[in-house]
Every structure is written in C-alpha cells, then in structure tokens.
Design a protein that fits this description.
This protein has 7 helices and 3 strands, in the order ααααααβββα. A hairpin with a 5-residue loop joins strand 2 and strand 3. The protein is 41% helix and 16% strand.
Amino acid sequence: MAGDIVEEYGVSISRACKLMDIHRSYFYYTDKKDDTEVEDAIRAAANFGDGFWKIYSRLRREGKTWNHKKVYRVYKAMHYEKRSRLKKRLPARVKNPLVMPKEPNVTWSIDFVSDRIECGRQFRVLNIIDDACKIAVTQEISMSMPAKRVIKVLEKGHMA
C-alpha cells in the first residue's frame, strides 16, 4: 500500500512508510525464497506416498537435506495436503471369559523371560505353567532358545 501512496500522490517513500506505520526496510524488502526445487521434489515424491511425513521421508532417502519445517512450509503453501488413509476398523471382538480346566495337563501357559548377566550376555528362561494347578511344568534356561529346542521341551513336558 505504501508503494501505491508513493505512485498516486508523489509522496516520498519515507513519508509513505510513516503514514502506513511501517519501517522503510519493509518497503524495500523482497522475498528471496525460491522454493521451486522443493516444490518439484514434493510433486515427484507425492506420486509414491500419501501425507506429509511419507513424502518427507522419501525426500530424505533421496538425499535431500531440507529440514521438515521448510518442506512443510512449502507443502502447505502448495495446498498439496493429501489426507492419510484412515485405519480399517475391525468389528468389536466378543469377549468370552477364560475357561479354567478342572484337571492338570489340559492346558499350559508359556512365556519367555529374559535378563542380562554381569558381563552383558543375555539369557532367556522358558516357563511352562499348568493352568489348572498353577504349577511350573518346566523351566528351561539358556543363552539362546531356537524353535526346535522349544518344541523338544514341550514334547518332554507332555510326557511327564
């Protein structure tokens, strides 16, 4: 508006700026941001993903070093907001109470517990508990517990 006042009334720039209550440097200010490179990169990345964060992570993987604030500013200025897809809603699960067995060795509960020893190595404990009498059927302790070993422990516990 200060530029219009200078042109129409022939007033000096400093006087027009005083009338508008702005600083003179604001009158001379020109926006130096050239975001065409960022806009092109956003358009290219938008073909592969929905939403800002997917686009931003794709730009990062491509080696662009712009921070998320700059990319988000340009993204919003482009009015390129893509809505992220909503999660598919699953039907409500029917909640049935757990049936406790009357006799032992009908059902077992299995759980792994892990910890570290003083030197930093990790060990695991396989706990197998009978659901009827709450007694530990087996506890297997090892540094590693491959699936074949778990199967062997379950078969051995079933024989007992």
